[in-house]
Design a protein that fits this description.
Length: about 290
């Protein structure tokens, strides 16, 4: 009996996504759209993009993720797409509702919305633009925004009076292609329980800046326990994402519950040649 290599096993059980920082050579939406089309052709399952307004040097040019994703949507037919992740606390939820629905219509129901608190760590993009710096306040803003989005995607009038946002009976039509709404994946750093509880309430979990498979497994286990405590059906679809340096075997992460792995490129200038090299190696990243 011939054994199956672990990387081949992982390819059968875990989906693969290009995760692209829209910096410098990748700040051209037409370039990213062509990359997405190439990725779809060779078998990648998703193309996701970072959402930033600013980054630390040497990065100079940064593209808008939503316009770039619109270009990707029109250049592809099957890959799942989305911002990974968008910092909702620096965005107006009604505007995000319109953007997500329009993009979901454009890509015929292939959008996933990745969300998180955002950070001032790498480019001071919050402090330099006068955004909220307190993590707990941004956490409340994020939860409130997610409530607004769920209500908006329902197609019913939205009545919301919260700490940060107010909507008074507005209907934000049309509805998304995906029902009951667009899947939401929640990002979380190690060592913070609130994002884990948030992830447990939504459609997917993206642990970021994780130090290896053991820490990944610990965080995934915590989210599973929280979902069980909330009465979530363990058989219901739920995505778990592992960000891995290209060439890493995703099989250990798949065994811990990962349903997707994302290409984790260096936190800085990423060349077009670097991305094309990873893309052409194929989805397993070997």
């Amino acid at each position: 009996m011939t054994s199956t290599p672990s990387s081949e096993l992982a390819q059968d059980t875990i989906r693969s996504g290009l995760w692209l920082p829209l910096f410098d050579e990748l700040a051209d939406p037409l370039v990213v759209a062509r990359l997405a089309a190439e990725a779809e052709e060779v078998g990648w399952h998703g193309v996701f993009v970072w959402d930033h307004l600013r980054w630390s040097e040497p990065v100079e040019e940064i593209a808008d993720p939503w316009i770039t994703l619109a270009a990707v949507a029109t250049a592809t037919e099957n890959v799942r797409i989305g911002p990974m992740v968008t910092p909702l606390p620096r965005r107006r939820p009604a505007k995000v509702a319109k953007e997500t629905v329009t993009l979901d219509q454009l890509c015929n129901g292939r959008l996933t919305l990745g969300v998180g608190l955002g950070s001032d760590r790498y480019g001071l993009e919050l402090s330099m633009m006068g955004e909220e710096l307190d993590d707990r306040v941004r956490g409340r803003m994020l939860d409130e925004s997610l409530s607004v989005l769920a209500a908006a995607w329902s197609g019913e009038p939205v009545y919301h009076r919260g700490e940060h946002y107010k909507l008074d009976g507005i209907r934000l039509l049309p509805r998304p292609v995906q029902r009951p709404g667009i899947p939401v994946w929640v990002a979380a750093l190690p060592g913070n329980s609130r994002p884990l509880r948030r992830a447990a309430r939504h459609d997917g979990f993206f642990p970021v800046l994780v130090a290896g498979v053991d820490q990944f497994a610990e965080m995934v286990g915590s989210v599973r326990e929280l979902r069980a405590a909330e009465g979530k059906d363990p058989a219901a679809p739920y995505d778990i994402v592992a960000a891995l340096v290209p060439g890493t075997d995703p099989a250990p992460y798949a065994r811990e519950g990962a349903t997707w792995w994302m290409t984790e490129f260096p936190m800085g200038a990423v060349s077009l040649d670097m991305v094309r090299g990873v893309l052409r190696e194929g989805p397993v990243g070997r």
